[in-house]
Amino acid sequence: xxxxxxxxxxxxxxxxxxxxxxxxxxxxxxxxxxxxxxxxxxxxxxxxxxxxxxxxxxxxxxxxxxxxxxxxxxxxxxxxxxxxxxxxxxxxxxxx
Amino acid sequence: xxxxxxxxxxxxxxxxxxxxxxxxxxxxxxxxxxxxxxxxxxxxxxxxxxxxxxxxxxxxxxxxxxxxxxxxxxxxxxxxxxxxxxxxxxxxxxxx
DNA sequence: AAATTAGGTTTATAATATAAACCGGTTTAT
DNA sequence: ATAAACCGGTTTATATTATAAACCTAATTT
Lengths: 96, 96
Fold this sequence. Notes:
Largest sheet of chain A: 3 strands, antiparallel
CATH superfamily of chain A: Winged helix-like DNA-binding domain superfamily/Winged helix DNA-binding domain
CATH topology of chain A: Arc Repressor Mutant, subunit A
Strand content of chain A: 15-25%
Oligomer: homodimer
CATH class of chain A: Mainly Alpha
Number of helices of chain A: 4
Strand order of the largest sheet of chain A: 1-3-2
CATH architecture of chain A: Orthogonal Bundle
Radius of gyration of chain A: 14 Å
Distance between the termini of chain A: 14 Å
Largest interface: A-B, 19 and 19 residues
């Protein structure tokens, strides 16, 4: 009847982060912060969870002298996202 | 960019309850319990929240000698649900 | 009449989200 | 050249939330 809603994705901020990363080759921390409007601490925590789950990969580097961390969604992350969207549709009345 | 996800609806069980109630004239407790597979305590708590918010109405009565409580979604509940679905679409890549 | 079941509600606990406080380094102003 | 402010984060404390266990009252079954 109702499909299981992956709790890792069923979170406003984590879903927002995944939504950004699925539509873009890669994104850095600042980009994510600006797009989501969330606080840095919150983003940091949620990104860690997505990373632990293997949904995104994290690459720490530099832009000039400053640190810059970029994030990319993984295959596993894409799969999980798609599955989540599919599960959601069992709750909404979206056709298909 | 991303729309606000009403936290009252962004909950697996409450969303399931609302999803049931939006597609049916009314439903009783047992029906909701069976359809969602959730425990009675959890359902009771979540229904109370939806009721407090004015999203559903509760009618306690009897079926023969046994108690039977039925639930109906309100206009306000329908509106909130639709708005929630719309907000969700800003996160997913559902066309329209 | 004791035990079980039904339909819930209340309460305790575990999990979660979120912001505040912090940290190492860099840039800017004095 | 030193202090102050800023940048990109991380850690940690707190508040909120979800969830199941325990419970209650009445009805049914044994």
